[in-house]
Specification:
single chain; 297 residues; mainly beta; Jelly Rolls; Immunoglobulin-like; six-stranded mixed sheet; five-stranded antiparallel sheet; 18 strands
Length: 297
């Protein structure tokens, strides 16, 4: 749309309309029908696009149309078109969640849950299933926070895999207090947050009467039990080999009387060591149990 510059009879001055000046004897500009119709049609186009019926008696329809939801619809998440962004779309895109809800029983998430933060509660174990990853846009995110009193399983649907800390699995476990941000990264469910830490190599461990725990510093704790032979010697094999060196061990006798347990230093190594156990009066016997806690790195 422009001024009717190409119409000589319009009487524009410097390209714009002017009023009649009777004192100076200069006529005012004329508005050609084509120009008036064009301006009107431009305005009507906006009003009608907003789903409104043009009215001769209203002078506010253009402003109402420009503020209408019909013209400014919030685009879907991950829309990358050149459509106008509403404040709702911007608010969501700045990192705020699209919504929040809670689950307390077995639940199948869908693409409608993308961008939501989901609280996981309840008192019994159950499974929360992720949607088919093919239905979720690349970069689609679910934010989970577990406050359940029982273990909750987060499972894949279909052939997709979930990868906390680089491990490729079909499901992960969430315990109370843990959080997980699960993202579609080019067809793989990537997991960020505290729920992924237990799957990290730096935090690897094994629970039980015999086990180990790795620490991010590189230090490793190991524990277990050993049984003495007739000479009072106990050959301990650690659950895993220390990568670099065995440092120390603390051991105690499991029994009803006093006993002394010492480390025989010469055979100590990355994979195990030899302990000796003696009763309070220096006696030895087979079948005495020793509980140990070893450190290394």
């Amino acid at each position: 749309m422009d001024y009717p510059i190409s119409v000589p009879s319009a009487g524009l001055v410097n390209g714009k309309f002017v009023d009649e000046d009777p004192l100076a004897g200069s006529p005012g500009s004329l508005i050609p029908a084509s120009w008036g119709n064009g301006v009107t049609q431009e305005i009507l186009g906006v009003v009608q696009a907003a789903g409104m019926t043009p009215s001769e008696t209203s002078n506010t329809q253009l402003l109402t149309a420009l503020r209408s939801a019909q013209l400014y619809q919030t685009r879907a998440p991950f829309d990358v078109s050149r459509s106008v962004a509403t404040t709702e779309f911007v608010q969501r895109s700045l990192g705020n969640y699209a919504g929040a809800r809670s689950v307390t029983a077995a639940t199948q998430l869908t693409v409608a849950d993308v961008g939501w933060t989901i609280g996981i509660g309840g008192n019994s174990p159950y499974t929360v299933s992720l949607p088919d990853i093919k239905t979720v846009p690349n970069g689609g995110t679910f934010s989970l926070h577990c406050r359940s009193n029982a273990v909750v399983t987060i499972a894949c649907t279909g052939t997709a895999q979930i990868t906390p800390q680089g491990a490729y699995l079909t499901s992960i476990i969430m315990n109370s207090g843990e959080s997980a941000t699960i993202v579609n990264e080019s067809g793989i469910w990537a997991v960020h947050g505290t729920a992924s830490l237990k799957y990290a190599a730096a935090f690897a461990g094994q629970s039980g009467f015999s086990g180990y725990q790795k620490h991010p510093s590189g230090n490793i704790d190991q524990w277990g039990t050993g049984i003495s032979n007739a000479a009072g010697d106990i050959y301990v094999s650690f659950p895993i080999s220390f990568p670099n060196a065995f440092c120390s061990i603390v051991a105690m006798h499991s029994g009803g009387d006093g006993a002394m347990v010492i480390l025989n230093g010469s055979p100590a190594g990355k994979q195990g060591c030899q302990l000796k156990i003696r009763s309070f009066n220096g006696g030895v016997s087979a079948g005495w149990t020793v509980i140990y806690h070893a450190k290394g790195y």
